Amino acid sequence: MRKVLNCLTVSLYLFFIALVLPSRTHAQRFQHPGLPFTTEDLTRLKANITQEPWLSAYNSFKSSGQSQLSYNPAGPFANVSRSPDLNNNAWKNDMVAIYNLAMMWIFTGDSAYARKATNLLDSWAVTNTSWGGTESMLDIGDYAPYWGPAADILKSTFPGWSTANTAHVNNYFANVLWPTSFVPNPLRDNNKGAIQLKIAFAVAVFMDDKTRWDEAVEVYRIDAGGGLRNSLSNGEVGDAGRDDHWFVQADALMWSAEVAWKQGVDLYAEMDNRLLAIGELYNHYNIDTTGLRFIPFGGYSAYYTNWGLVPGTRRQAA
Question: How big is the chain by its Cα radius of gyration, in Å?
Answer without folding.
Answer: 22
